[in-house]
Amino acid sequence: MPPPEHWTAFSTCDPDAAAHFLQTAYATGHRLSLPSPPAPGGGPVVAPAQHRAGPLQVAEALVDPQVVSVIDPSDTITVNVIRAGVLETRIADATSRHGAGDVLIGVGPRLARRHLSQHLAVHTLSLPAALIAAAAGRPAEDTERPWDFTSTTPLNAHASMLWRTTSAYIATMLRMPPQALGPLLIGNLARLAASTLLTAFPTTLGGEARAAPYDRTDATPPVLRRAIAFIDANPHRDIALADIAAAAHASPRALQYAFRRHLDTTPTAYLRRVRLEAAHRDLHAGTPATTTVTEIALRWGFASPSRLAAEHRAAYRTLPSQVLRDGH
Fold first, then answer.
1. pTM metric for this prediction
2. Which SS3 state, helix, strand or coil, does residue 2 take?
3. Fewer CB near the terminus (10 Å): N or C of the chain?
């Protein structure tokens, strides 16, 4: 399938030009070389097509016939899904070999790696290391403690399938025209990628979100009121649990206790409810001639019209299309 028009395509037989493109695209050091000169009239050495949406970047690349790449550690983590060909990876003294269907960390936060690719077709998804740490429960201000993956491959076959399925879904969503993807949906996709990565790959980030003794005592009505006021004022923004907790002057765990204790729900569930109410108001205010259910769904962070329809019907006992058509 060809890349969408809004993706950036690039093709070159020059290793230096390819390295410059990759270094610019991925904000990390890439040094490329060829084990042997390319054949006269041969195809491109590197031919990636990539697209960035918020903190996420997806790419489909062809690397042919053989390319050696040395990649520095980076604050941007890249996960590879090999479509075809072979990728041999060396980190320190350990060498591993990967083929079609395999999943591995292509760029990590701490160790440089050397890749030897042979007739490689690869799908990549990149996201900030800070987003992964936040998904594990590490406070945003805690930037000093290093972390890394304890394996460059998923935990098991099920974890590998989980990553392949999730990254394919995210890539499909990012094939949509940029104007259709609002910041709420992009933020949701980024957090989905981070949480799936933590589920699929072993890291040293385990146990970051342990409850502190004061979390339960901090789950007070004033904390809840501050959180609700922040959510009610900012449903249009890409906000996460950490943002709500900061506005409420509480830890994320204390905030979760407060919502569970006083409202029998969670902060993120309350945020989804507020966004559903906003979507419901937009459906009332719109007409089929001026807007669509899809536009309203994406505007308020719903991944599809069917997702909005399911939640809207559960809450209001009617479909979004009926409200848009009839105004009630």
1. 0.81
2. coil
3. N
